Amino acid sequence: MPQGTAPGRTPHIRGFLYASDACARIAQRLPVIAGSDSSVLIVGETGTGKEICAQALHYLSRRADGPWVAVNCAAVPVELIESELFGHVKGAFTTAHSSRHGLVKEAEGGTMFLDDIDCLPLLAQGKLLRFLQQQEYRPVGCNTVQRSDVRVIAASNRDLRVMVKQNAFRQDLYFRLNVLPVALPPLRERREDIALLAEHFVRQFDQARGGDGRRLSAQALQKLLAYDWPGNVRELRHVIERSVLLAAGARIEADDIAIDPALDADAQAEAPDPAGESFQAAKKRVVERFERQYIETLLALHHGNLTHAAHAAKKNRRAFFELVRKHQIDTRRFNDSP
């Protein structure tokens, strides 16, 4: 989620731009979560905005003036993770030519964000658990215990409960981190955010290149709304950046929206399992998915106006409304679409 807020939404939270009820509910919870020092576990698919959410919690908290330290656990070599987190003393290992503070020390009085926490090796998980429980740690090679005042926010795009069952993640650490859980929905489940995010990114990248006032055409927006975005907000951002840079005119057309066909969920429709699903059940599932996506796309294009959406679908308003009601779509969610 990029920086900003949706029109008419409260509370005002740094880093959040949304029109969906799903994100509005998360935004309402964040100030409460930020008011505590308990651990937070943010889960969601890649690109859903887990670090933006963690930053929002930091800047809403009493620690806002303290340091913000982000750690990508997947990028730190296994043999160095403990030293990176807790530091080391001179001579602790072969290449330790001098003492060095760890990231926990750098985050003192602030917030430490542990992204891809699922990549943390089991030995380091035990050390992190002790730190969370006691708020104390020992640098590698040091016999002295050091105290710390750091709030930890962790994030993962994997189901840690499954990893616990597979003995790949410590159950006690999972419980310790999951005191205050936040689950970020994928972009395909909050399509009413797509138009708002896309327009935001267009303005952002247009201004960065001099500000020609570029806008998305209705056809371009429709193409964006019809795509499932497996890479979520991050993928949308990259697609818009490329479109702004390559579009020939002031208006970005559908042909300027380059989506990788290998990732297109529509090009690779959900394959039914013939062994576990009947023809009728598979057909019903695909039809319902199409109907809901089609309706939501039209509602986003017409800002939630049922009459205009029905006209575009070449259906009478009553029949279109019945489809909206069948899929339990709240048209008010689309009123903030640009």
Which CATH class of the largest domain? Answer: Alpha Beta
Beta-strand percentage?
5-15%
Number of domains: 3
Quick one: CATH superfamily of the largest domain? P-loop containing nucleotide triphosphate hydrolases
Kindly state the number of beta strands. 9
Main sheet characteristics: 5 strands, parallel
Strand order of the largest sheet: 2-3-6-1-7
Shape: elongated
Which class of secondary structure composition applies to the elements?
Answer: alpha/beta
Order of helices and strands: HEHEHHEHEEEHHEHEHHEHHH
Distance between the termini: 17 Å
**Global Rg:** 23 Å
Q: What is the helix tally?
A: 13
The overall average pLDDT, rounded, is 85
Helix content: 40-55%
CATH fold-level assignment of the largest domain:
Rossmann fold
CATH architecture of the largest domain: 3-Layer(aba) Sandwich
Q: Provide the low-confidence segments as ranges.
A: 3-10, 265-271
Describe the protein:
- The protein is of the alpha/beta class and 338 residues long.
- The chain contains 13 helices and nine strands.
- It folds into three domains: 21-185, Rossmann fold (3-Layer(aba) Sandwich), CATH 3.40.50; 191-268, Helicase, Ruva Protein, domain 3, CATH 1.10.8; 270-338, no CATH class.
- It has helices at residues 21-34, 50-60, 81-86, 103-106, 122-134, 160-165, 171-177, 192-208, 218-226, 232-246, 279-301, 306-312, 317-326; strands at 40-43, 68-72, 111-115, 136-137, 146-147, 151-156, 180-183, 215-216, 251-252.
- The strands form three sheets. The protein has a five-stranded parallel sheet. It has a two-stranded antiparallel ribbon with strand order 4-5.
- Helix 12 packs across helix 13.
- The protein is elongated, with a radius of gyration of 23 Å.
- The chain starts with 20 loop residues before the first helix and ends in a 12-residue tail after the last helix.
- Mean pLDDT is 85; it is low at 3-10 and 265-271.
